[in-house]
Write a structure and sequence with these properties.
Elements: H1 8-17, H2 25-34, H3 41-47, H4 53-67, E1 71-72, E2 80-81, E3 88-97, E4 100-105, E5 117-119, E6 133-141, E7 144-153, E8 159-167, E9 170-175, E10 184-188, E11 197-203, E12 210-218, H5 225-233, H6 242-251, E13 260-261, E14 268-271, E15 280-286, E16 296-303, H7 305-308, H8 314-322, E17 326-327, E18 332-333, H9 338-344, E19 352-362, E20 368-379, E21 382-385, H10 386-394, H11 402-423, E22 433-437, E23 443-448, H12 453-475, E24 482-484, H13 490-501, H14 515-523, H15 530-541, E25 547-549, H16 573-585, H17 599-603, H18 605-635, E26 642-651, E27 654-659, E28 663-669, E29 678-681, E30 686-689, E31 695-697, E32 701-710, E33 715-719
Parallel strand pairs: 5-7, 10-12, 13-20, 14-21, 28-33
Antiparallel strand pairs: 1-2, 3-4, 3-6, 4-5, 6-7, 8-9, 8-11, 9-10, 11-12, 15-16, 16-19, 17-18, 19-20, 22-23, 24-25, 26-27, 26-32, 27-28, 29-30, 30-31, 32-33
Helix pairs in contact: 5-18, 11-12, 12-16, 13-15
Length: about 750
């Protein structure tokens, strides 16, 4: 018998014993343990040369062994010893210890908790993180198990999150994922009933596919269920184990020790009114140094999370696994337990807090002249909402700190704004949607967040501190976890050039492309011209996605050569890494580098950057989908109404539009546009009527009737209203942009630049 049968090692030994016929229990267990291939009934029969009636007897013997607890097997799969793991099986990553992922079998039928397998990764494959699924070869190693990945599988490939509904005497599962185009018949609902949100496992084989309910999650229409859907769909860890909570409670009592005392300064935190944590606070004053005429001194004080979350501890392992906090309208899934994230690490007025202070010297032109980092003790003078700070500066509301804290901050910001304008970072109008809920979690309103100078002020202080952190570490040749945003690819620039031609805008590919290049394009278009929105959409599509990594490629969007994230360590692991590197590089830890970056983490920065970049993308997708569900729920009361919309995407099967001021994309199927044939122009992202020339293009504003709003998957569907006063663009109306206009001046949300 050859190696392909997986029986050679065992049968070589057995041949010496000359044991013919049906094997005994121990022989079967030995074979299963030593086979280097999955050992099912067929492989066992082949290995022992069984046929006919012997195979039937073997089947009965294997059933008896399973009943006796000697072996275990999922139906139709390989056998393994009870309490053991199949030689080849599907694993789900549940943790990362150090740099090594840890997984458990996706299917486990034993009475004991599933074993934890350490993943042995080789080569340059994309690193594995919590929630990933792999097909792996396993082996016992000492007292534990190792797994060697063979293939990465799609997340949730065998699991479906959805809502049960009844049709006749059968239950069906409607998936929450928009991409799932079919409902699933339910073979086993367990305790679940119609209307329940459930997690179900796919079973059977085509064409008789079905699902079996694994877990009942509750009522999908109850307040706060929409975020729960995203948490389960994306596998976001949302519970801390007791050991991690105990460690958080223990470190929260640590004495702050010797620190630079900044408690006498009127340092303030300016945050959203609904902020769940407070990472950062700021202070500024005019510089009295004659060598810096008209300049300023400023402090950006950031929560000293590295003092509490030590490398290698349970808190650290959990924070690394999560990568970042995830923010939903109804809850936050924090990176750290609330004892730290909402209390001891959060900078609160009147409370002594540990901070890592970035001291900045800024010229009158906004240039960073010098910087210094120190572990400090701060006692904030106030936590001020953005709106209150702005009202105090505008003179519409009194605040006791207007003259002592706010006006000096605004004066210094005027200098920082000069430097920003000189850099000319990418200037896109990207309003953020805000969902307002009542105390019961019901939706009160959905609207864009107001963008104030107070928001821009804090953003520019944070950018200055982030630049200083990166440059300070470079000066010490210490590891840096950069926030990298690369320039657009040539392929995307070619597509943008061709698109801009239709508006009479020239875009030369040979030029050095900078953020200001795109700002100049937008400045050529009248802000009131509908074409501006379309061009802005295409400029946005041409950009690359930012990521974390130890190799500096600059931040294109901000027009900065060196940039790291330093200002949000409560909610971003990348910032915690930067803090630890600063602590080590500048000897800020009196406890023999107990809170500094470890040599192991310094060597594994590339892989760590990939993991936290993946976690960030997961969080962004979950947050966006949840907002879409809230928007769909809010708009479900407006079915049949004609709404103002803007086209956000065009495909051959129709176009997508978003409701102005609300967001949430909805489809207008091409079949509803009339009897004529519409041609899909992929290059210009538009549908054009073959006879009429009627055109539906990205960025176009029009009125549409809402015909469907599904809160479960966040989808909307529109149709053209009958007898509507509006008309699609026609050939003669597709005009070039009008007079020059100023850019909107609104930048990206500061937290994820």
């Amino acid at each position: 018998m050859g190696d392909a049968d997986g029986a050679t090692p065992y049968l070589a030994r057995m041949s010496k014993r000359n044991t013919p016929g049906l094997p005994g229990r121990q022989q079967i267990l030995d074979f299963i343990s030593t086979s280097d291939q999955p050992a099912g009934k067929r492989e066992i029969a082949r290995a022992f040369g069984l046929s006919g009636q012997e195979k039937i007897t073997l089947k009965a013997l294997l059933k008896d062994m399973a009943d006796e607890g000697l072996i275990d097997s999922a139906p139709g799969r390989a056998f393994h010893k009870m309490g053991g793991v199949p030689k080849v099986t599907v694993l789900r990553i549940v943790d990362v210890e150090g740099d090594q992922p840890v997984a458990v079998p996706e299917s486990w039928h034993g009475d004991t908790p599933p074993p934890r397998l350490r993943i042995v990764e080789r080569g340059k494959r994309q690193p594995l993180g919590p929630g990933d699924r792999i097909l792996a070869r396993t082996e016992e190693a000492g007292r534990g198990w190792l797994a060697h990945p063979l293939k990465k599988l799609a997340r949730g490939e065998d699991l479906v999150l959805g809502v049960l509904h009844a049709e006749g005497d059968r239950l069906w599962l409607k998936p929450v994922d928009k991409r799932e185009k079919r409902d699933w018949v339910v073979s086993d609902a367990g305790e679940a009933g119609a209307g329940d949100l459930v997690l179900a496992e796919k079973t059977g084989r085509p064409p008789r596919l079905s699902v079996r309910v694994q877990e009942v999650l509750g009522d999908p229409f109850q307040p706060r269920s929409f975020s729960l859907i995203a948490i389960h769909k994306h596998g976001i860890p949302d519970r801390f184990n007791e050991e991690t909570i105990e460690e958080a409670e223990r470190v929260a009592t640590l004495d702050l020790g010797e620190r630079e005392d900044l408690t006498d300064l009127p340092i303030v935190a300016i945050d959203p009114v609904d902020a769940r944590d407070h990472d950062d606070a700021v202070w500024a004053t005019a510089d009295d140094d004659p060598a810096n005429p008209g300049g300023f001194r400023a402090i950006v004080a950031i929560a000293d999370v590295s003092f509490y979350v030590r490398p290698g501890g349970r808190l650290d392992r959990e924070a690394r696994k999560r990568g970042n906090s995830v923010y939903f309208p109804d809850r936050v899934v924090p990176m750290l337990p609330e004892t730290l994230s909402a209390d001891m690490c959060s900078l609160k007025a009147g409370e002594d807090r540990a901070a890592l202070a970035c001291h900045l010297t800024i010229s009158a032109a906004g240039k960073l002249l010098s910087w210094r980092f120190a572990r400090a003790r701060v006692r904030l003078a106030a936590n001020i909402p953005y709106e209150d700070a702005q009202a105090a500066i505008d003179g519409t509301r009194d605040h006791p700190l207007t003259e002592t804290a706010l006006r000096p901050l605004w004066a210094c910001w005027a200098a920082l704004a000069k430097a920003r304008d000189a850099r000319s970072p990418l200037d896109l109008d990207l309003p953020e949607r805000r969902v307002v809920l009542d105390e019961m979690g019901r939706i009160l309103s959905v609207a864009p967040r107001e963008r104030l100078d107070a928001h821009r002020l804090i953003e520019d202080y944070m950018i200055a501190a982030n630049v200083a952190a990166a440059k300070a570490l470079e000066a010490k040749k210490a590891p840096v976890m950069y926030r990298v945003h690369e320039a657009p690819s040539r392929e995307k620039l070619v597509a943008l050039r061709d698109y801009l031609k239709t508006f009479g805008i020239e875009f030369a590919l040979g030029q050095v492309v900078r953020p200001s290049t795109f700002n100049h394009i937008l400045a050529k278009i009248d802000p009131e011209d509908a074409a501006r929105a379309r061009v802005m959409e295409q400029v946005l599509r041409s950009q690359t996605q930012a990521y974390y990594g130890p190799v500096n490629a600059g931040h294109f969007g901000l027009a900065l050569g060196s940039y790291a994230h330093f200002t949000s360590p409560i909610r971003r692991y990348a910032d915690l890494v930067v803090h630890r590197s600063l602590v080590g590089a500048y000897s800020l830890d009196p406890a023999a580098k107990a809170t500094a970056l470890t040599a192991e983490d310094a060597d594994g920065m590339d892989r760590l950057g990939q993991l936290i970049s993946q976690a960030e993308r997961r969080a962004m997708e979950a947050e966006r989908e949840t907002i879409d569900r809230y928007v769909a729920a809010f708009l479900s009361t407006k079915i049949g109404e004609v709404l103002d919309t803007r086209i956000t995407g065009v495909q051959g099967f129709g176009f997508f539009a978003t409701v102005e001021g609300f967001g949430g994309d909805g489809l207008v199927p091409v079949s509803t546009l009339g009897a004529e044939y519409f041609q899909h122009d992929e290059l210009l992202h538009r549908l054009v009527g073959e006879t009429s020339g009627d055109t539906y293009a990205i960025g176009q504003q029009l009125k549409l009737r809402l015909v469907e709003a599904d809160p479960i998957n966040g989808s909307l569907r529109f149709e053209l209203p009958e007898g509507a006063s509006h008309a699609p663009m026609r050939g003669k109306d597709r005009r070039a942009p009008g007079r020059r206009g100023r850019p909107a001046g609104i930048r990206h949300k500061g937290g994820r630049r």
